[in-house]
Amino acid sequence: MSTEYNFAYLDEQTKRMIRRALLKGVAIPGYQVPFASREMPMPYGWGTGGVQVTAACLKPDDTLKVIDQGADDTTNAVSIRKFFEKTAAVAVSEKTEESTVIQTRHRIPEQDLTEDQILVYQVPIPEPLRFLEPRETETRKMHALEEYGLMHVKLYEDIARHGRIATSYAYPVKVEGRYVMDPSPIPKFDNPKMEMAALQLFGAGREQRIYAVPPYTKVVSLDFEDHPFEKGGAPQACGLCDAHDAYLDEVIMDDAGTRMFVCSDTDYCRMRREAGHIGEMGVPLAEDAA
Amino acid sequence: MQNPSVTGGFLDAARDSAIAFRAALDAMARPGKISEVSGAVPPAPLSVAAGTLLLTLCDPETPVWLGGAFANDAVVAWLRFHTGASVVSNRKEAMFALGTWVDLFPIHDFPIGTPEYPDRSATLIVERKTLDAAGITLTGPGIKTTAALSLPDIEAFQNNAGLFPLGLDFFFTSGSRVAALPRTTKLES
User: Fold this and answer.
1) Crossing angle, helix B48-57 and helix B13-29, to 10 degrees?
2) Residues A25, A30, A49, A50: which is the catalytic one?
3) Partner residue facing A6 (CB), from B14, B57, B116
4) pTM to 2 decimals?
5) Which ipTM score applies to this complex?
6) Domains in chain B, please, with CATH?
């Protein structure tokens, strides 16, 4: 570990400010707590909010996992993992069940999380009403008055135009019957997982907001009686591990348009392949490595 | 002789406060769960847990209200030296308040936030002789089925929960033990 950095990069006063915001966020589930987001050594849009929340939460004996769209091996995930290896000297892992803190961009791991884990989301636009009402003063008033009619109008317009609710990611949820919250751009497939045993923390660096969902909190995806929420998902199974219950990415294989569907959660796919599951286009794991 | 107010802080501020914060976060996310915190060696009558919470969460931006026997010179000097927090006598200005339940009660003068900013509310640290996972039944966010906690009151906390999303949040400390009660928790005797 480099001794030039304070533990987990941020200075202590910044961490205290973030920690106070986190505690209030947990006490008011789904409410966006303003915080004085700092410049981080990475550009906005690369997870500066999530990184600051993780930095304020990490303790020396944590094992950190970072995923980007479900994958541990993409640029964003690798660089954030390296950042905390260098500045906090914490253990890192790609295995969901080994990790105590998981920072994520746009996915919830397929495996159920436990009470001993914290899931930290990177959030681009924390305000679910922002594209309906651009003024912060107004959206804040709408949250205060629990005035969420506009959000239902948006979903209704989806139905009027497409015959169904076409919103497929960042699908708005109502937390514990009070605040409407943006679950960050996770696929709506992941929405039902948000009622989980782990603590969920959300950090939006550019927009300077922190919010939280405590364990076992009611998280309801907005819908209509005659158009109930559907989590969706591909009808195919994963081409590598044959998973039928996972969220899949579509990969174009050649110029002729051949395509394959694979698990977006790379750790889940590896685990299944190690357990001997082989998909239609897959080969046993040992052969693949050779 | 060394001034006692300059001792008793964290030995390794970054790591000690990180460990203490996670215990506090865990307590707030799981109402009724009792965790251990340590690191601070505060002057009497502050408990280790209360002292550790103050060092972890307070700084020059957080006015602290001290109740009863806790408003003594030793505690004030220790708090000022280690955190830089200002000690206020007006409950309406407090971001943190510390004392026994008798010192803190009635609690309605502490800030409960505004409809636009319900986070601008005080956090109360209630010092207790004992802290047990028994007594009043708790339900709500963070609790799988039910939890239980020995609380000094029920009506005041029920009234506080009725203010949601406004309201106060509580830590209860005893020795090195800490538990929490956010405004979302529902209580039944």
Assistant:
1) 100
2) A30
3) B14
4) 0.96
5) 0.97
6) 4-188 (3.40.50.11310)
